[in-house]
Amino acid sequence: MSDTIESKLYDGAVAVREGRRADAQGLLMQVIESDEQNELAWLWLSGAVEDPADQQVALENVLAINPENAAARQGLTWLQSRYGSLDAAPAPAGEWTPPVPRNTDEVDELQCYQCGAAVYSVATFCWQCHAPIHCCNNCVFRPEPRCKVLQELTSTMAQAGRNDCEWWRVTN
């Protein structure tokens, strides 16, 4: 691992312990994007996400990397005892017509969902904290699950990464 990956992992773990979940998620996702096999990043990420289904995904990724990881096994056992089966939620009933796709020439100023820095909607990542901008976390349709199901973005972690949603809308 490089120094930057190690420092991001450390800072992410500290953010989890301090209860700064959004900061922790951003840092740990950067580590995972650089090294998908980073067992510790996935383990800490399980403590940074709030959704039990996302916690399960993170812990399952730890076990895929190291089937002997006792902390991940204990975490999955606890999740299953508390929430039961955490299979993906079914898509809402009824047809849904997405809004007109966003014009690529539209540029809006918004705040980064993670650090609050002023960014433009055409930016890929925040200039300050490097969080992805073109993602569900910055979208006015964040609570609307149907567009995420159509794109197979049913996990909060998948929504937090950069995506190419044609219906993406910035929050104002």
- Mean pLDDT, nearest integer? 83
Radius of gyration: 17 Å
* Subunit organisation of the chains: single chain
Classify the secondary structure makeup into a structural class: mainly alpha
Which band does the percent of strand residues land in?
under 5%
Order of SSEs: HHHHHEEHH
Number of strands: 2
Number of helices: 7
In short:
This protein is mainly alpha-helical. It contains 7 helices and 2 strands; from the N terminus they run αααααββαα. The chain has helices at residues 3-17, 21-34, 39-48, 52-65, 70-83, 145-150, 156-160; strands at residues 109-111, 118-120.
Question: Any overview of this molecule?
Answer:
With 172 residues, the protein is mostly helical. It folds into 2 domains: 3-83, Tetratricopeptide repeat domain (Serine Threonine Protein Phosphatase 5, Tetratricopeptide repeat, Alpha Horseshoe), CATH 1.25.40; 89-172, no CATH class. It is 45% helix and 3% strand. The chain contains 7 helices and 2 strands; from the N terminus they run αααααββαα. Strands 1-2 form a two-stranded antiparallel ribbon. Helix 4 packs antiparallel against helix 5 (70-83). The protein starts with a helix and ends in a 12-residue tail after the last helix. The mean pLDDT is 83.
